[in-house]
Amino acid sequence: MVQQLTIFDVPTTTFEIGNTVEVVVNVTEKEVEDYYYLKEFQGVRGRVIKGLRGQQYEVLFAKCNRVGIFRQSELRRG
After folding, report:
1. Quick one: which of 8, 23, 38, 62 has the fewest CB in 10 Å?
2. Measured between alpha carbons, how far is 67 from 65 in angstroms, rounded to an integer?
3. Where do the structural domains in the chain lie, given as residue ranges?
């Protein structure tokens, strides 16, 4: 059985400043720049420090003292 969803039924995962997140590599190796950028942060937990336009977030990784910018689809709650 197929069920039609409204715009209110679509699940959204938004992050707030201070949330702990982990980077997810969700692109193929064909997308070289994205793949290697994400691969560098894969499995490392960070904290959202700023929300940007277009569902992007700045994330601080305390262990390596670096900041990265990621799309919402590239993050999951850590």
Report:
1. 8
2. 7
3. 20-77
DSSP category for residue 41: H
Report the predicted TM-score, pTM, of the whole model to 2 decimal places.
0.77
Share of residues in the chain with pLDDT > 90 (%): 47
Cα separation, 41 vs 52, in Å, equals 19
Strands of 75-77's sheet in order across: 66-71, 56-61, 45-52, 20-23, 75-77
d(CA 76, CA 14): 10
The two three-digit tokens of residue 68, written as one number = 């990265």
Report the chain's C-alpha Rg in angstroms.
Answer: 14
Strand partners, 42: 23
Instruction: Note the pLDDT tens digit of each residue in 15-39.
Output: 999 999 999 988 887 888 988 999 9
DSSP-H helix ranges across 1-78: 32-41
